[in-house]
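Before relying on records like the one below, remember that each one covers exactly one chain. Contacts with other chains, cofactors or solvent are not represented anywhere in the record.
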Amino acid sequence: MLTTIVSFVIVLGILVFIHELGHFLMARRAGVGVETFSLGFGPKIFCRKVGETEYCISAIPLGGYVKMVGQDDMKVQAPEDIPEEERRRSFLHKSVGKRSLIILAGPAMNVVLAVVLMPLAYMIGVQIPAFLERPPVIGWVEPDTGAAKAGLTPGDRVIAIDGQETRTWETLREAVATNPGKTAALDIERSGQRLSLSLPIETVEKVGLGDAGLIPEVPPVVGSIMRGFPAEEAGIKPGDRIVSLSGTPVRHWYQ
């Protein structure tokens, strides 16, 4: 939970910084003075003044702001009553075109960020579960599901669904998910024999996708040990593979 909150604050902070940076850079380019550049709202935690601009980090990390010269001056004054230097650097005394550019620069920077990050995400890649690229060997069958009604058992290898070859779990999951409420023709291999079964596919109401209770085979390899639990006391270590329990052979985690 804490990790999720911290991650949210960091991502939001980056988005806010880029957004406000757009306003800041365009204001400077348009000749508008910037009094404050702040990440966050509320009481200021840290501030440092460089030139005419005060750079701050504020207590509430749910936004940010750029305060420009003349931005909050809502009083209508005759141009001759305003000092020339202030009028030259005031946001309200710039042309409509320049003010529009300053306002639009924030959202534009967020668009630029998205355009930059998208190809980076493709180049770096996105992690997907390793089992999706493995052959669809059944590791466990959920009771009272389509898989149980079809008579599938752990160790069955799904060869095809509705005539479509299923070389990986990804292919099988996609075929099941896109056919909610239907009954699929399933070809499997069990103990060297090929069998044909009928697989009822249920509908997951919240998302409208199909599900049949098919669970992949997950090797019983220990990833980590929780301190203070019996596994630690027994001397089990990360990387150990469990081959039997009380004399019963173990093939996958669900046993």
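The chain has three domains: 2-124, 132-215, 218-255.
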